[in-house]
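Posting this for the archive.
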Amino acid sequence: MTLMTSDLSDAIGFGPLPKDWYTVRAVEIQDETSNKTQAPMLALTLMVETGEYAKKRVFPPYRVMLGGVTEKGEKQRTDRVCELINATNVEWKCNGCGASGVRKFVKNDQQKYLCPDCMQVTKFSYDTDHFRDKVFRALLSQEKGFNSEEMVNSVARVAPLS
Protein backbone atom coordinates (compact mmCIF):
# COMPACT_ATOMS: atom_id res chain seq x y z
CA MET A 1 0.00 0.00 0.00
CA THR A 2 1.27 3.48 -0.89
CA LEU A 3 1.34 6.14 1.81
CA MET A 4 -0.33 9.31 0.46
CA THR A 5 -0.56 12.88 1.74
CA SER A 6 -3.49 15.12 0.78
CA ASP A 7 -4.13 18.80 1.34
CA LEU A 8 -7.47 19.70 2.94
CA SER A 9 -7.16 23.41 2.17
CA ASP A 10 -9.15 23.06 -1.06
CA ALA A 11 -11.53 20.28 -0.02
CA ILE A 12 -15.15 21.33 -0.46
CA GLY A 13 -18.03 19.44 1.11
CA PHE A 14 -20.96 18.02 -0.81
CA GLY A 15 -23.71 19.62 1.27
CA PRO A 16 -26.74 21.37 -0.20
CA LEU A 17 -26.59 24.87 -1.60
CA PRO A 18 -27.95 27.66 0.60
CA LYS A 19 -31.59 28.63 0.11
CA ASP A 20 -31.72 31.23 -2.66
CA TRP A 21 -32.51 31.91 -6.31
CA TYR A 22 -29.87 30.55 -8.73
CA THR A 23 -29.35 30.71 -12.48
CA VAL A 24 -29.26 27.05 -13.51
CA ARG A 25 -28.93 24.95 -16.66
CA ALA A 26 -30.68 21.61 -17.24
CA VAL A 27 -27.55 19.61 -18.07
CA GLU A 28 -29.24 16.19 -18.09
CA ILE A 29 -32.84 15.16 -18.52
CA GLN A 30 -34.41 11.77 -18.10
CA ASP A 31 -37.96 10.54 -18.57
CA GLU A 32 -38.93 8.53 -15.49
CA THR A 33 -41.92 6.75 -14.07
CA SER A 34 -43.10 6.99 -10.47
CA ASN A 35 -42.44 3.71 -8.62
CA LYS A 36 -45.64 4.11 -6.59
CA THR A 37 -48.16 5.17 -9.23
CA GLN A 38 -46.45 4.62 -12.59
CA ALA A 39 -47.14 8.31 -13.37
CA PRO A 40 -44.77 9.87 -15.92
CA MET A 41 -42.26 12.42 -14.69
CA LEU A 42 -39.23 14.29 -15.89
CA ALA A 43 -35.97 14.37 -13.92
CA LEU A 44 -33.72 17.35 -14.65
CA THR A 45 -30.16 17.49 -13.35
CA LEU A 46 -29.45 21.16 -12.76
CA MET A 47 -26.08 22.89 -12.66
CA VAL A 48 -25.53 26.40 -11.29
CA GLU A 49 -24.35 28.73 -14.05
CA THR A 50 -23.08 31.81 -12.21
CA GLY A 51 -21.73 33.09 -8.92
CA GLU A 52 -19.97 31.42 -6.03
CA TYR A 53 -21.52 28.02 -6.76
CA ALA A 54 -20.99 28.01 -10.55
CA LYS A 55 -20.50 24.48 -11.94
CA LYS A 56 -22.03 22.86 -8.85
CA ARG A 57 -24.79 20.36 -9.58
CA VAL A 58 -28.00 20.48 -7.60
CA PHE A 59 -28.80 17.19 -5.85
CA PRO A 60 -31.17 15.44 -6.16
CA PRO A 61 -32.54 16.05 -9.69
CA TYR A 62 -35.59 18.30 -10.06
CA ARG A 63 -38.50 15.91 -10.70
CA VAL A 64 -41.64 17.22 -12.37
CA MET A 65 -44.84 15.17 -12.66
CA LEU A 66 -46.12 15.12 -16.25
CA GLY A 67 -49.51 13.49 -15.69
CA GLY A 68 -51.03 10.30 -14.34
CA VAL A 69 -52.61 9.89 -10.93
CA THR A 70 -51.58 10.19 -7.28
CA GLU A 71 -51.52 7.32 -4.78
CA LYS A 72 -55.11 8.35 -3.88
CA GLY A 73 -56.17 7.96 -7.52
CA GLU A 74 -56.55 11.71 -8.11
CA LYS A 75 -55.15 13.43 -11.20
CA GLN A 76 -51.56 14.60 -10.81
CA ARG A 77 -51.18 18.36 -10.77
CA THR A 78 -49.32 19.58 -13.85
CA ASP A 79 -48.82 23.16 -12.70
CA ARG A 80 -45.08 22.55 -12.18
CA VAL A 81 -44.60 21.50 -15.81
CA CYS A 82 -46.50 24.63 -16.91
CA GLU A 83 -44.22 26.72 -14.70
CA LEU A 84 -41.17 24.95 -16.17
CA ILE A 85 -42.37 25.53 -19.76
CA ASN A 86 -42.91 29.22 -18.95
CA ALA A 87 -39.43 29.46 -17.39
CA THR A 88 -37.61 27.71 -20.24
CA ASN A 89 -39.56 28.88 -23.31
CA VAL A 90 -40.12 25.33 -24.55
CA GLU A 91 -42.42 24.99 -27.55
CA TRP A 92 -45.78 23.34 -26.88
CA LYS A 93 -49.05 22.68 -28.66
CA CYS A 94 -52.58 23.18 -27.34
CA ASN A 95 -54.55 20.02 -28.07
CA GLY A 96 -57.76 22.04 -27.79
CA CYS A 97 -57.32 24.80 -30.36
CA GLY A 98 -54.23 23.46 -32.14
CA ALA A 99 -52.10 26.57 -31.60
CA SER A 100 -48.40 25.86 -31.14
CA GLY A 101 -45.13 27.67 -30.60
CA VAL A 102 -43.05 29.18 -27.83
CA ARG A 103 -45.44 31.14 -25.63
CA LYS A 104 -46.40 31.44 -21.99
CA PHE A 105 -49.34 29.81 -20.30
CA VAL A 106 -51.58 32.35 -18.56
CA LYS A 107 -53.43 31.98 -15.24
CA ASN A 108 -57.06 32.73 -14.57
CA ASP A 109 -58.58 34.04 -11.31
CA GLN A 110 -58.50 30.52 -9.82
CA GLN A 111 -54.75 30.27 -10.67
CA LYS A 112 -55.43 27.58 -13.32
CA TYR A 113 -53.10 27.56 -16.29
CA LEU A 114 -54.74 28.36 -19.64
CA CYS A 115 -53.74 28.29 -23.28
CA PRO A 116 -53.13 31.96 -24.22
CA ASP A 117 -54.81 31.45 -27.60
CA CYS A 118 -58.13 29.78 -26.69
CA MET A 119 -58.06 30.78 -22.97
CA GLN A 120 -59.15 27.25 -21.99
CA VAL A 121 -57.89 24.72 -19.46
CA THR A 122 -56.79 22.08 -21.95
CA LYS A 123 -54.44 19.22 -22.69
CA PHE A 124 -51.13 20.14 -24.30
CA SER A 125 -48.19 18.40 -25.97
CA TYR A 126 -44.45 19.08 -25.81
CA ASP A 127 -41.14 17.29 -26.34
CA THR A 128 -39.27 16.66 -23.07
CA ASP A 129 -35.94 16.65 -24.94
CA HIS A 130 -36.41 20.40 -25.50
CA PHE A 131 -35.73 21.08 -21.80
CA ARG A 132 -32.08 19.99 -22.24
CA ASP A 133 -29.56 22.84 -21.93
CA LYS A 134 -32.25 25.41 -21.07
CA VAL A 135 -31.11 28.11 -18.66
CA PHE A 136 -33.57 29.51 -16.11
CA ARG A 137 -33.83 30.57 -12.48
CA ALA A 138 -34.55 28.12 -9.68
CA LEU A 139 -35.43 28.87 -6.07
CA LEU A 140 -33.65 26.20 -4.05
CA SER A 141 -34.65 25.21 -0.57
CA GLN A 142 -33.41 22.44 1.72
CA GLU A 143 -35.18 19.39 3.11
CA LYS A 144 -34.34 15.99 4.52
CA GLY A 145 -33.58 13.46 1.82
CA PHE A 146 -35.92 10.55 1.07
CA ASN A 147 -35.43 7.92 3.81
CA SER A 148 -32.51 9.93 5.18
CA GLU A 149 -31.62 12.53 7.77
CA GLU A 150 -29.20 14.15 5.31
CA MET A 151 -30.20 17.59 4.05
CA VAL A 152 -30.56 17.93 0.26
CA ASN A 153 -31.75 20.66 -2.08
CA SER A 154 -35.23 20.83 -3.51
CA VAL A 155 -36.56 23.18 -6.16
CA ALA A 156 -39.32 25.30 -4.69
CA ARG A 157 -40.03 27.40 -7.81
CA VAL A 158 -38.68 28.09 -11.28
CA ALA A 159 -38.81 31.31 -13.28
CA PRO A 160 -37.49 32.78 -16.54
CA LEU A 161 -34.19 34.65 -16.50
CA SER A 162 -35.82 38.03 -16.97
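The chain has two domains: 16-67+75-88+128-162, 91-126. The two ends are 55 Å apart (CA to CA).
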